[in-house]
User: What shape does this take?
Amino acid sequence: MFYTDKVEKTGLQYDEGLRQFMLSVYNQMTLALVISGLFAVGINMSPIAMQLIWGTPFKWVAIFMPLAMSLAYAFFQAKMSLAMTRAYFYTFAATMGISLSFIFMIFKLGSIVNVFFITAATFGAASIYGYVTKRDLTKMGSFLMMGMIGLVIAGLVNLFLQSSMMTLVISCISVLIFTGLTAYDTQELKQVYDELYDEEMEKAGVTGALNLYINFINIYVSLLQIMGEKKE
Assistant: This one.
């Protein structure tokens, strides 16, 4: 339970309330990662499912559905209730898991696991920085958001060009951008706790968990492209 009373949030219980709020955000993000992992592994263990998704035109649905859901969320989140927002988040995580099942076709299992832990360390360091820094990251966040849009466009173009050099460049820039966004989003969550109350704050926390989840996934996939050991 969060400390949502205005007096309490500015008093001695502020640190404990903030800690509980951030823990809730990270728990929701972790649950989403677990859901994605279960779907990705489950599909990989089924040759029929892998063939159905990646051996047919359905692969384009698997590739673009997470992006479409992200855009839809940006347009409709203001009208969603807290329960709907959570349900949408976990549905998005399941969809992302389906999309991520492709990594088992390309990379060795040991590499997939190792890069996951490297991603976790990178993400953790960036999030801790965003939590403890006194520097205002607002301007950096705006710049990184523009860079993210550029990455999406470049990634879509490279889907058709299939340039290995362009993939490497995009992956390197992506790691930098989404690591920076992790710090920015973490700091923004602290401001959410300062400014919002009750269900409004909890809903913003779910959105924050979604943002952090997206950052984590993008760092992970990008590091896989850079460091991952591919199957022969």
